[in-house]
Amino acid sequence: MTIFPNHSELTEERKRLVQYMDKAMRRWRQGNPIPYLWGGQSWSKYKSKHHPGYYKNIQGVDCSGFVILGLIDVGILKVGYDTTAAGLRSRFQIVSSAEALPGDLVFFGSGKRISHVGMCYQPVGNGHWVMVEAGGGGSTCKTVEIAMSKNAYVRPAWTSRRSDIRGYGRIL
């Protein structure tokens, strides 16, 4: 499990979200990353610990699909919940980057349009985060083969490298 300076202060739901992200990052480091698929919301025989018996046949995930599966797994969202990055933005309280905690959401877009979401994973200082995101594919990425050709996977990303952040969402 990833260790944070105030890890003992994290709620059980946040700790489970960190474990969810840890699992995805382990797959990425081992060279078996979860593919990005536009509209996808499942990954390799995903089984929710919070909802026993809930399985999906896994092909890949898009940005909101990855976030939604994590939030279902810890009981924040109900099984079957489906929305976009913009839909997630409207559901959660907005906080500053300095107030964000592991598991909180980070939203991206242009103007008022929200087009991408990731999950805060590890703080790196000055209000910046390593986040976990499903990215690199876009709306043309509809097969695993296309994802592989575009290097589009669930992966770590640094918020300090993005100029299109539109806010952070508090999950609890």
CATH level-3 fold name: endopeptidase fold (from Nostoc punctiforme)
CATH hierarchy class name: Alpha Beta
Arithmetic mean pLDDT: 85
N-to-C order of helices and strands: HEEEEHHEEEEHEE
Q: Counting H and I runs of at least 4 residues, what is the number of helices?
A: 4
Dominant shape:
globular
Main sheet properties = 6 strands, antiparallel
Q: What is the CATH architecture assignment?
A: Alpha-Beta Complex
* Helix content range: 25-40%
Q: Alpha-carbon distance between the termini?
A: 21 Å
Structure commentary:
The structure is a single chain. The protein is an alpha+beta fold. It has a single domain, classed as endopeptidase fold (from Nostoc punctiforme) (Alpha-Beta Complex). The protein is 25% helix and 29% strand. It is built from 4 helices and 10 strands, in the order αββββααββββαββ. It is globular, with a radius of gyration of 15 Å. It starts with 11 loop residues before the first helix and ends with a strand. The N terminus is likely disordered.
Layout of helices and strands:
Blueprint: H1 12-29, E1 41-42, E2 46-47, E3 55-56, E4 60-61, H2 63-73, H3 85-91, E5 93-95, E6 105-110, E7 113-125, E8 128-135, H4 144-150, E9 153-158, E10 165-170
Short description:
This protein is of the alpha+beta class and 172 residues long. Helices cover 25% and strands 29% of the residues.
List keywords for this structure.
172 residues, alpha+beta, endopeptidase fold (from Nostoc punctiforme), two-stranded antiparallel sheet, 4 helices
